[in-house]
Write a structure and sequence with these properties.
Layout lengths: L8 E4 L3 H12 L7 E4 L3 H11 L2 E2 L2 H7 L2 E4 L3 H11 L8 E4 L6 H8 L6 E5 L9 E7 L5 H11 L3 E5 L5 H9 L1 H18 L4 H22 L3 H8 L5 H11 L2 H22 L1
Parallel strand pairs: 1-2, 1-4, 2-3, 4-5, 5-6, 7-8
Antiparallel strand pairs: 6-7
Length: about 270
């Protein structure tokens, strides 16, 4: 973590996602002595301290002592957290917000620190297994140095990509919520396997490994998904019969509508804080 060497990082609101980031920062070589954590409940703070050897502090102390603050609270809790941080935050800090729908402008305005660099990141739950997709956007005063610092934090738990902040609501719909769509599809396919006469455990193993293999092929082959699908789809075969039913039931259109709904909800979250 060359760019962030000897800089203290604080994870504010260490739930599951926050803890995963905390763990990733430490695995990337950051000494525990340079990592701070905050939690709403004292027992949770104690648990994290014992598990990782990091210091649990108040939000105010995190603002005073850390060079980079990662805000991992829910969108509806963001305004209160920013109000709490504002009186204690120097202008030379980097603030990284990971809350869906919350803009860098909102964060900067609530903190009220002129020139404060704010970076917005949308990651997803595979952060727990170091396979996250994290989209990173610069706020008005965030430079390339600040973006690189954010990348150093999120890269140990998956892949990072830079996007304009105007695209973040779409990112939230596509990859932030994306794992849920795959779980939903896998759940339905397992149920289909049971309907076809397979034991649940067998159906689960077949579908999960098929999903893993398909994902690796998508990632590593460089082929367009249409080509990969066509390679499985023989003329007058079983696969094309299934694809015909998916199209007949407008599965593609349903997915388009679902992602539009998720994007719109991301925008609503921003307007409701």
């Amino acid at each position: 973590m060359a760019e962030g060497d000897h800089q203290r990082v604080a994870v504010l609101g260490a739930g599951k996602m926050g803890e995963a980031l905390l763990s990733g920062v430490l695995r990337a070589g950051k000494p525990a002595s340079e990592v701070l954590v905050t939690a709403r409940r004292a027992e949770r703070a104690t648990e994290l301290t014992e598990r990782y050897g990091v210091a649990a502090v108040s939000n105010a102390d995190a603002a005073k002592d850390a060079d980079t603050l990662i805000l991992c609270v829910k969108p509806q809790d963001m305004a209160a957290l920013l109000t709490e941080l504002a009186p204690h935050l120097p202008a030379d800090r980097l603030v990284i917000s990971g809350a869906a729908g919350i803009t860098t402008a909102f964060v900067a305005e609530r903190l009220g620190v002129p020139g404060l660099p704010v970076v917005r990141v949308m990651t997803n739950t595979p952060v727990l297994v170091d396979e996250a997709m994290s989209a990173i956007s610069a706020g008005e005063h965030a430079s390339d140095v600040h973006l690189r610092r954010a990348e150093e934090i999120f890269r140990p738990v998956g892949k990072t990509i830079r996007v304009p902040e105007s695209q973040q609501d779409a990112v939230t719909a596509l990859s932030g919520s994306g794992p849920a769509y795959f779980y939903f599809l896998v759940e339905a396919m397992i149920d289909a396997g049971i309907l076809l006469g397979l034991p649940r455990a067998t159906a689960h193993e077949l579908i999960v490994q098929s999903a893993v293999g398909a994902a690796v092929m998508l990632r590593d082959s460089g082929e367009h998904p249409v080509k990969l699908r066509e390679a499985v789809t023989s003329p007058a075969g079983t696969t094309i019969s299934a694809i015909r039913e998916l199209e007949r039931h407008s599965v593609r259109a349903a997915l388009l509508a679902a992602l539009e709904a998720a994007r719109d909800r991301s925008r609503e979250l921003a307007s409701g804080v």
